[in-house]
Each structure stands twice: as structure tokens, then as C-alpha cells.
């Protein structure tokens, strides 16, 4: 049985899509939830309200993961308000559809700042607390594109998510002796606000290539995240779990 009673989680990018589903699912299992957001305050407040309706303590915080100072301020505020951090899901991220010949330097750099550096700096800010306490679980969010390349998304997105997969392994090795586990979930084509912006014909073509014959849901990804964060996955660290309907079997 998965039980997070007495524990607190921070989910960045928690106002929409997979982050939202993860925050609510954690709350459903008794976890107090801190929701990090950059711009979607109304959506973040809705997540908080839903978590509270499930009996969980919840609060949202504005922070831009491109800015180290704001990440550190976010983590400090959560520790001040909740007193502890047991679970981190650094889920803030962006996507972009761009052909290789058209990919500019700034597009490349921003993707890395948000998806890779933002993930690292959030983990970096939380790890000292977890390691000092001798326990904790971090679940990063990568993408199947990080292992097999993207069909729609730009090469900058695929490269950033490949970096997250390797970052997860490195952090897992670093933190394992302190009782902290670090794992990764790599979704495939998931029905979220992000994929809503993809060209319909491209999405249709991708779905036809998925062995299960459909897109996944944010809830299906959240279920994997929550499992890895829980004691049910107590002997797992440095692992990447693919939630992609059989598209890539890593």
C-alpha cells in the first residue's frame, strides 16, 4: 500500500498536465503538497484547492526555475512552511517544435536552462536537506525522446531530456549512501496541454506507431511517479521507467 502520511512533496511545474496529476495523486495518498509554478497562478490555486479537498495540506509558490535564487527561495519557503521535504518532483519544463536547420542558439540555450539546468538546480537545492535527514525520494521527468530522439519535438528538447536521464543516474550515485533515492519517469506521447499544440496530422502519425494504439494520460504518468516516490520502490534508485505504450522498451 502506498502511504505518504506525514510526508511533504514539492512538485515544480505542478499547475498543469503531469505535474498537476502528480500533485493531486500524492495528496490522495496522504502527502502534503507544495506546488511550484511560474506563470499559471490560477491553475496552481486550483491544484491546491483539489489537494485540500482530499484532506491534504497544500500551498503554491511562484518560482522561475531558470533563476537559481528563485529556486533556493522556493525550497526555503517550503521548508519554512512545512518543516520538511520528503519527495521532490522537478517537473517544470518546456517543449518546442523546430527543425534542425532552424534551431537557433537561444532556442537551444533556453531549453537547456529550463529542462536540464532547472532540474539540476532544483535537486541541488533540496538534496542537502534530504541527505542530512537520511531519507528522501526524487523523481525526475524526462521523455522517451531522450532515449530514442523526438519525432515532433526539436533536437534541443530530446537532448535536454537525455541529459535528465543521465543526471538522474549521477545524482542517484551521489546520494545513495545518504538514504536518498533518485529515479526518473520518461513519458512518451501523453495527452496534455503541451501535446495539444502539436500538429494534428503529426500526432495521428505518431499514435499509429504506438503498440498500444493510443496516447497516454497524465494520470498514467503520475501513477508511475508516485510509485517511484513511495516506499513500494524502496530498492530502486538510478532507474528510468518508460511510460509510452510500448513505443520504446528500454
Describe the SSE topology.
Elements: E1 8-12, H1 17-28, E2 32-37, H2 41-53, E3 58-62, H3 68-82, E4 87-90, H4 105-133, E5 136-141, H5 145-148, H6 155-175, E6 180-187, E7 190-191, H7 193-196, H8 200-208, E8 216-217, H9 218-229, E9 240-243
Please give a structural write-up.
The protein has 250 residues and is α/β, with parallel strands linked by helices. The protein has one domain (8-241): NAD(P)-binding Rossmann-like Domain (Rossmann fold). Helix content is 48%, strand content 17%. It has nine helices and nine strands. It has helices spanning 17-28, 41-53, 68-82, 105-133, 145-148, 155-175, 193-196, 200-208, 218-229, and strands at residues 8-12, 32-37, 58-62, 87-90, 136-141, 180-187, 190-191, 216-217, 240-243. It has a seven-stranded parallel beta sheet, sandwiched between helices. Strands 7-8 form a two-stranded parallel sheet. Strand 2 (32-37), helix 2 and strand 3 (58-62) form a beta-alpha-beta unit. Helix 1 (17-28) packs parallel to helix 2 and helix 1 (17-28) crosses helix 9 (218-229). The longest helix is centred in the middle third of the chain and has 29 residues, at 105-133. It starts with 7 loop residues before the first strand and ends in a 7-residue tail after the last strand. The model has no long low-confidence stretch (mean pLDDT 95).
